[in-house]
Amino acid sequence: MHYQLRHTTRYDYSAEVALSHNEARLLPRELPWQQVGQTDIAIHPTPVRLRERRDFFGNRVGYFSIQELHGGLEVTATSLVTTSPRPEPQGHFISWEQAGACLREGTDCLEARLFILDSDFVAADAALADYARDSFTPGRSLVEAVYALNQQIFTEFTYDPEHTTIATPLLDVLASRRGVCQDFAHLAIGCLRSLGLAARYVSGYMETLPPPGQPKLQGADATHAWLAVFIPGWGWLEIDPTNGCLPDERYIILGWGRDFSDVTPLKGVMSGGGNDRLTVAVDVIPVVEAGPRS
């Protein structure tokens, strides 16, 4: 699949800002199943400096600084991306208990150990472990258990964008059985970490389709969140509990980390402002390649 991505973030300030320093994680990662073509970040007002680096997790980070009075900020990232099918685990894999032992003791799981630990938005808890045990029955294959947890959350929770905020505690989400993709990704990660397993938060986009016969609205897409679970001896397996499926070519990865705080699309500090108004518009546009002429 070929896509053109456009992500525009605009802040309108109630008072002028004199200085701001910002980080943008808006450029997709290069992966075996995701090839990234031309990318660009347009910023208004024009920053005095703009440079790109890689963070601890290998995500692309654009740093920029604005040193003039400004009443708003607009950042637009555009990218061309080609996706292909992801690899999927086949055959028999170790049980989830054996996977936990490998993560605790095995030297071939060192890269994943960071993702067992608590993070800003996700902390292990006995209540999360108890919730996950319906899927993680004794001796069950780790892959089968992960698939079951993915369906369990999808079936038992209701998508409700009015119910939670970024600050809603994870145990409140568990109790209410309501939330959004960010909440469900954090919930699944919390369940897995509470069982001694490694899981990381994935930020990106998913192509959405309009109702039959209707045109796709510009800016109607949004960022999406899902997660990946470490399978010892195989690698990272992505799941999407919001939709109860495995991510495919429609899913485009921006980055990953321990939770949302590691992959916030745009964040920074500023002098001035207050009562800011945020507007975000995202377009994931399929690009149809022209076939050979007859």
From TrEMBL:
Q: Which residues form the Transglutaminase-like domain?
A: 173-243
Q: Tell me which InterPro entries the record gives.
A: Bac_transglu_N (IPR013589), Papain-like_cys_pep_sf (IPR038765), Transglutaminase-like (IPR002931)
- Which stretches are transmembrane? none
Q: Which SMART domains match?
A: TGc (SM00460)
Record PANTHER family: BLR2979 PROTEIN (PTHR33490:SF7), BLR5614 PROTEIN-RELATED (PTHR33490)
The protein, known as: Transglutaminase family protein
Please spell out the taxonomic lineage of the organism that makes this protein: Bacteria, Pseudomonadati, Pseudomonadota, Gammaproteobacteria, Aeromonadales
